[in-house]
Amino acid sequence: MSTTETPVRPRASAPAPQPKEKHPERHGLPAAGFLAPFLLLYLLFVLGPALYGLLMSFFDTSLVRPGLGSFAGLGNYAEALQSAAFWSSLWHTVWFTILTTPPLIVVALVLALLADRVKRGRWFFRLAFFAPYILPSAVVALIWIFIYTPGLGLLEIGLGKIGITSPNWLGDPNWAMPSLAITTLWWTLGFNFVLYLAGLQEIPRDLYEASAMDGATPWQQVRAITVPMLGRTTTLVAVLQVIASLKVFDQMYLMTQGGPNFGTRSILELVYDEGFTNFRTGYAAAVSMLFFIVVLAVSAVWFALVRRQEKEV
Amino acid sequence: MTPLSRRSLLRGALGAAAGLGLAGCSTPVISGLSTGHEKAGSLDYWNLFGGGDGVRMTQMLETFRAANPQISLSAVTLAWGNPYYTKLALATLGDKPPDIAISHLTRMKTLVASNLLEELQLADLARYGITPDKISGTAWQAGLVDGKAYAIPLDTHPFVMFYNTDICQKAGLLDTAGQLTPLDSPEKFTDAMHKAKAVTQAYGGVVSINGDTATPWRIFQSLYSQLGGETLADDGRKVILDDAKATPVLTFLQSITAGGLFPADIDYQSAIATFANGQAGFYFQGEWEISTFQTAKMPFSMTLFPNLYGGSKYAVQADSHTLVIPKQPNVDPARLDRSLLLIKSMLDQSKTWAEGGHVPTWLPFRDSAEYKTLTPQSNYAAAADGAVYDPPGWYSGSGSNFEIVTVLGGQQSPADALAQMRSQLTHLSTTASPI
Prior knowledge:
The complex is a heterodimer. Chain A is mainly alpha-helical. Chain A is built from 13 helices and no strands. Chain B is of the alpha/beta class. The interface of A and B includes residues 276 and 281 of A.
């Protein structure tokens, strides 16, 4: 990999002192002007609805009745915390996150390393691994429902040819979640792959050259140079991946409808079911708020980890 | 290339945005976002029919289009079950309802309670020749809410029994006239399944279990109702599940899968395939699957779901497809007329619809000689009189959570399944109704 003709890429240069820095006080107004459109939309479509949701969660609000409905106090929260459906859905979301996050980090890294080492047709591998990411969830669901179909599906027939009996991928309560995780791995791998590819370009080539001269094997280079130098990328990928996995809804709603026997209903699908199908928007808002606390807690842990990492660097 | 100045860039962007806005008016996205109906003489119709029903509905709509070229009908088919009713409710709440829509009779009551449907005036209906005395009594009565009509039932669709005539012949289950001997007790039923299994060398009968919440409920509700069992009272605010009646039904259902007479681990499509391939002599499902087996060109017939427990009083789970008019944002008599014209056209085409297996509610056709000669469809016409509709409740109705929670996990014991069913229903019944 590290050959002498590879040009050494300049690292992102340290910020040079900029002339504009002389008048920091003048930045206020134009900055606010540029931020205003975003802030307005953010207020209108994120903060406003979120606050309204918080308010709604304390009422028996119904989708089909005007107004907030009768005051429920903490009733919705108490109901959610005592409901088996809430805890099992929350567990399904967490289980999905556990199943998807490690492979989506490790496999993306491995593929990025491989694609980076390819000498010819690198564009093809980059495209091939990234391409599924641009598909809409409905298309992904259709493709994988076909692959998983019992009796006629690609996977069952393919595995049958080499003498492996397939489980009922989406129909068996024990297999449905891993099947969804496999689909998600194929679908969203491309994003992490691209982040890792970018991270790889940032590693100075001279490190490889120097280590090669000292007699390091390619595997030692990967272990001692590539992986540590990608540390920050890995943190970023992990944070984004955990958040993306916690938000899972599409695949489950489209491929299993939360089944079999609610075995793959994620917390967001519970919110959807309660809010839009059962018209119980107040209760659905309470469940959302509880989920928000979980995501907040996860983010706080990551934030602490990143802070520590930044201090080390 | 000269660098773009900020001013010209902004000007260009504004121009492009304005262009998009103008061009946008003609796109379906924008016209879908604007309120009110665009075209005069249009009619938006939503339904949830797939498979054979979907094909027949398309035929009926083509007939309507040919007879009424002045009306531009746009028909939308959405995914069956909860997704359909969720979209119908949201569209109506958002003041963009279809002019007319299909609803299951059992779901229609929730829509009425949510104030999402227009009441149908008998005088308006009469102008199109639709009068209550021309519609099957059981379905019409079941469709009234506080004595008011909100829905025109198009059919009754009971749970029925399909049987492979070749296999039943070989198993000695047909009488001299070629009719299936009645399976009117659990013992006779089990015995027939054993005989059919001996012929097929695979299974006696088959019913969809996996990844399907509705079918297990249908078979349970049919047998449980034959014992006189009821699930909910007081509009769903009270659970009156009767263990003494539900336990034998669940035990019986589990015995037929545990004994290998029925496959225990099979989904909807595989159940169809098992019956169509002759690996099972009997198949249990709503009558709509008739088209599937006709297409497969296999020797089969259909009859009433067996009366295992009912004795003289027959009962079977059923529902009706009805035509409803969602709450309209503004009153438009011409639009209502177009909707009523479509309703009448659907009723007049009851024959096409009945060929798809459904028992017609339109008496001018149901009482005709033409229907009586339509076999096997008329074999089970009596099911409409023993029809048991899902009990009213805001969480009840075809494809709703009520059906879903009563799934019989093959992995569960009858007592556990019953306990799960009771605790979930009790939870739903004590929850403040959102409608």
